[in-house]
Each structure stands twice: as structure tokens, then as C-alpha cells.
Amino acid sequence: MTWLDVPADHPFGIATLPYGVCATAARGPRVGVRIGDHVLDVAALAASGGAPAGVAQAWATPSLNAFLALGRPVWRAARAWVRDLLTDPSHRGTVLEHLHPVSSVTMHLPIQVADYVDYYASEHHAANVGQIFRPDSPALPANWKHLPIGYHGRAGTIVVSGTDVVRPSGQRKGPADPAPVYGPSIRLDIEAELGFLVGGATAMGTRVGVDEADEHLFGVVVLNDWSARDIQAWEYVPLGPYLGKSFATSISAWVTPMEALEAARIPLPGQHDPLPLPYLRSSGDAAYGLDVRVEVSVNGTVVARPPYAAMYWSPTQMLAHMTVNGASLRDGDLFGSGTISGPDRHTRGSLLELTWNATEPVALADGSTRGYLMDGDTVTMTAWAPGPDGARIGLGEVTGTIRPTAP
């Protein structure tokens, strides 16, 4: 237990301790750790001495990238050091000097994104999309159960929670339209996902196996993969998503370390059938699922509660597949899980599925309905997971408001 006055059921208790990059009125962006409703300036504390080697310099920078480069042994040691500060009352005086109310800090994008990949790891989501767009064909693509399908996104348009999103424009063409037209997307959607932050750079030509992947998985963010479905539908054949996805991807400001989610690890749902190729198998339990509960709200109305536990592919399998061709990892790589969806309507993580492509709109508390997003709509996603000894691990939130297309 921490000596701070933090309720036992607080989502940011001693079992969580997420990292973020924040600024105060007196100091610019640097690494902080959230505890309860406060942010601990660990960069300033580490500068005073006692932190593991290299951590003070890494935490004094305006992103987590330098810390990610230090590797898992240092990540573990640094987390243990912070926990000691917050559980040993002898550190009380020193810690209180560097504690700030969360309302008094400005949060920044936690990493300089090196590369961004987004996966398609939910069988329920992939099957729903197949039924909507390819009703006369098999719901799942032929390769779907053989490999984690993904696409490369645009690292430069990853934004932190709270950033407004401008409605994108592009080409679109409906099935009955004689020719494509250009204009603002009229089918703007969301995708509730988790994003995984990567550290421990590797050389080109090397591979990271499933059993080694955890050495490179630093932490998790809540991720909203905004999607312009009409632009996407016209452009994606034959090379996949491009402008329909690349205009913005929002992530939570707080990064939950993978260590905080150890109690949330569960077996993947069911046996993979067919059995994946050897490079996607684990010799032990390294191919795991996560019991993370996500909640999606539009203008304050909860519209879905997608369960990450239903995902077909493990984050370690996704990372192994990412490098099997010899592609290198870089500190600050980010990959998304793909839309999280469950078997029931209220567990679907996109409006495309929730409204079955706008044919069954969802009702909001103000009496209005939505097939897709309107200008002014605010989407908020939160997530939590069970922790040790009954603790609740909060993964923070990601929120964004849709603004009209730029003139």
C-alpha cells in the first residue's frame, strides 16, 4: 500500500503507475508517473539520485523514447524504484515536493512515434466487416487465421487524447455512383483498440520470436483508429487502407506498463484452428490474451463495451509477425490491435458494426441517433483491467471531438 491518501479502488493506485509526458507551469515536458489524482515528477526525483543508471537522463526528455531504449531490465528496476518511493514513508518529504495535482499539468504525446502498424486481430470484427461488405463471400479472408493481418499507418498523425480531429476529405464512390466524387467523408467512424509501445531496437535482418516479444513490449495505450469508411471502401483495393485511416489516430496520454497487466493475462480464446506456422507459436505461455474491458461513449452516451479478452491473436504474435521478414524494431514503434469486438451487438468496437453500416442507428441520451459521426461529436474511450489482490488497473482514456472539414 502507498502512504499517499489514495483509495484502494482507485484505477491509478500503486498497482498501476502509468507513465506520461507532462508539463507544469514551471517546467517543460518531461516524464511523470500518475498516482491517484496526482502526477509525480519522476524526472526531478531521479535527478536527485537513487534511480537506476540512465533513467534520470531519459526521464528529463520530452518523450518516453529514451527510456524505451534502456530495455526491460531497466524498465523493471525503474518501476520498482518508484514503487519504493511511494510505499516507504521515509521518502514522504522528498516525494511531496514533486507531486502535482493532475489537473495542474498539461499532457503531451507520450512518444515520438517511430513506425505505426495497425492490426486486424479480432475474429468477431473481421467476420462482421466481411458480412457487411462481402455478403456473398466467406466472412473471413482466406489468410486471416494463418497470420495477423495489418497495415502500415502514418506515424506523423498520431495525436494525444484531447486533440480535435478534422473531418477528412477524399475520393468516395458508392456502388451505384457512376463515378467517384471528392469531398468530406460522410461515413466517419471510430475503432476501439489497444496500442502497444515497443522498446529495445533491433537490427534489420533479425527477427523477434513470440517467446522473446515481451522483452520489447513496454506498455499499452487506449487507441482510437478514426476511419473514413467511404474513402476507405473506394481506395482499399488492392493495397489496403490509406487516406481513410491516415488523417488521425488518437492515443491516451497515459501508458500502462505491461507489468501492471500481469494479473490480467489470460489464455487466448480457444485453440487456434488451423494451428499457426511455427514462428507464431510459443514454447510456453508467451502467446497470451488480456482481460481488458473497454468502454466507448459518444457525447456521453455509452454505446459499446468491447472485451479485449475475445481477441484471436496475442500482442506477442503480432510483434513476432511484424519482424519475421527481418524488419527492424525502433524505440517508439507503436502497433494497434485492430478493432476490439465481441460476439454481441453491445460489444462491437466500431459504428460500422454497431449500426450495421448505418442501417440500425444507435440512440444517444439527447434523443438523437447516429449511423456515423457528425461534426461536434465527442468520442471517449476508457479501459481497465483486473489487477493483483482485487486492484483495478486503469488504462486512462482517449477522447477527441470532430471538427468540420478544413476549408
How does the SSE layout of this entry go?
Layout: E1 19-23, E2 30-35, E3 38-40, H1 42-47, H2 55-59, H3 65-68, H4 72-87, H5 92-96, E4 99-101, E5 106-108, E6 116-119, H6 123-133, E7 150-152, E8 158-160, E9 165-166, E10 169-172, E11 181-184, E12 188-189, E13 192-198, E14 217-224, E15 227-228, H7 229-235, E16 249-251, E17 256-257, E18 265-267, E19 288-290, E20 293-298, E21 301-304, H8 315-323, E22 333-336, H9 351-354, E23 362-363, E24 369-370, E25 378-386, E26 392-403
Parallel strand pairs: 6-22, 8-16, 9-26
Antiparallel strand pairs: 1-2, 1-5, 2-3, 3-4, 6-7, 10-11, 12-15, 13-14, 13-22, 14-16, 14-17, 18-19, 20-21, 20-25, 23-24, 25-26
What can you tell me about this protein's structure?
The structure is a single chain. The chain is α+β, with helices and mostly antiparallel strands and 407 residues long. The strands form 7 sheets. Strands 6, 7, 8, 13, 14, 16, 17 and 22 form an 8-stranded mixed beta sheet that branches. Strands 4-3-2-1-5 form a 5-stranded antiparallel beta sheet, with no helix packed on it. Strands 9-26-25-20-21 form a 5-stranded mixed beta sheet, with no helix packed on it. It is globular. It has helices spanning 42-47, 55-59, 65-68, 72-87, 92-96, 123-133, 229-235, 315-323, 351-354; strands at 19-23, 30-35, 38-40, 99-101, 106-108, 116-119, 150-152, 158-160, 165-166, 169-172, 181-184, 188-189, 192-198, 217-224, 227-228, 249-251, 256-257, 265-267, 288-290, 293-298, 301-304, 333-336, 362-363, 369-370, 378-386, 392-403.
